[in-house]
Amino acid sequence: MPKLTVVEAPAPSPLPVRRPPVSGPRARLRELQDQVAGHERRIKEARSAFDRLSDVIRVAVQTKAALSEFDAASAEAAAAWAKQHLNKTPPEVDTDARQKLLVAHAIAQENASASYAARARFESAVNEEHQAIKALQIPMQHAIAEILIAEASGPEMDRLRDAVAAAVRLQVRLQASFHAVVDIAHSGPADAMKPVFVMVEGFSETLRLAAAPPAPDGADDRLAWAKFAAALRADAGAELEGK
User: Fold this and answer.
1) Alpha-carbon torsion angle 96, 100, 106, 112, nearest 10
2) For the chain, domain boundaries
3) How far apart are CA 108 and CA 121, in angstroms?
């Protein structure tokens, strides 16, 4: 009887991940913030390179200072000998030491010259990245404005509609009661109904004041929306506090 051999099938290749299409102001804001983060990362990299080139330039400055210090010391020794004439043999400059300093400074100066040109490129790159970030600020503000409107147009707007509808219904009901009282005032002789007309005037003023109450101070609400907008500039997923 033949033996059965179990052959393991190869593991299926993973299906490509399908990302949902980017849509909506929050997704657009997140994309813009990612672009800003990319520009800021490149700015940081360019500045690091700029600083490293500055270190090369600094070596040229240091070698020049060392050479100047050596020459100043040699000149001081020569001046002291000439002034005091301590012996007949004038002091000699340490030629080997000076040559080493000259070579070190020459090499450092050549490296510095190349570094100046390279550093200018990175400085230009930083400026370009800053301009790119600046160009993204307006579309980011547009997206933030859309998010604020969408936030205010949700449940908050529904509550406003319900409140306005309830207020209108109440106004209609109260206005009907007012007209009913007016009808009563006109149902008899004016002299006899004078007390009712007085009541009508008082009731009319009460309705007027009730229909136009003093506006509440909205400073706290404005601050809350301003904080929300500021939070969105840093994080597209920020939420309105106290909603």
Assistant:
1) -160
2) 24-141, 154-238
3) 20
Can you tell me the distance from the alpha carbon of 192 to that of 179, in angstroms, rounded to the nearest whole number? 19
Tokens 């052959």 belong to residue: 7
Which residues neighbour 105 within 8 Å (Cβ) at sequence distance 6 or greater?
Answer: 60, 63, 64, 66, 67
**Cβ atoms within 10 Å of 118's Cβ, excluding its own:** 15
Contact 102, 67 (CB under 8 A): yes
- Tokens (6 digits) for 129: 């990245």
- 85-120 pLDDT, tens digit per residue, is 666 678 888 889 999 999 999 999 998 889 998 999
In single-letter form, the type of residue at position 169 comes to R
Q: Which two tokens stand for residue 142?
A: 């547009």
